[in-house]
Amino acid sequence: MKLNERGLLVVLSGPSGVGKGTVRKALFDEYGKNLTYSISMTTRPMRPGEVNGKDYYFVTEDEFKKKIMEGGFLEYNYFCGNYYGTPMDEVEKALNSGKELILEIEVNGCRQVKEKMLDAVTIFIVPPSREALYERLKHRGTESDYQIQERINKANAEFGLAYQYDYIVVNDDVNNAADRISAIIRAEHARTRRSIYKYYELLGDEEDEQK
Description:
By secondary structure, the protein is α/β, with parallel strands linked by helices.
């Protein structure tokens, strides 16, 4: 029995290029039955193989700014010439249905989430070394040299922000990282602050049955 029936908002974040998307996909491959992915909205062009409504909601800059004015984002950010954001209505729908909602965002976005949703579970994914991250960024083949250097500079600035997160997971092996995140989710459901009220309700029911 799960004492906390509301879904968990689990934020996967970390330095740019650390492999958040790869870890998230491995997590869903292994534990996807009870998980749902928060699809972000972006103004960046669609890359080959991406699907609108599955990888991102691809919109124009005017559409994105309109949603900002309406207060429709849990968080949003402007990076490398494009906007990225998490639609609030999708988040509430998933959590109210009891789903574990996985949100994959950049460091700045995570700070915004923590301000609006204090019970969010934040996980900082880190590489086994700086050099491993640099090599990953250089060999992705999806960006110009300028964009790669911009991401490296951004990652260097973000390494020191790990203390702001609830957990740190090293992405030394994708499947191992996914296992660690799954264990964190299970443990979070048993935290007293999430489950104490349901626990007291159960004790009350048992007392009624014994009378």
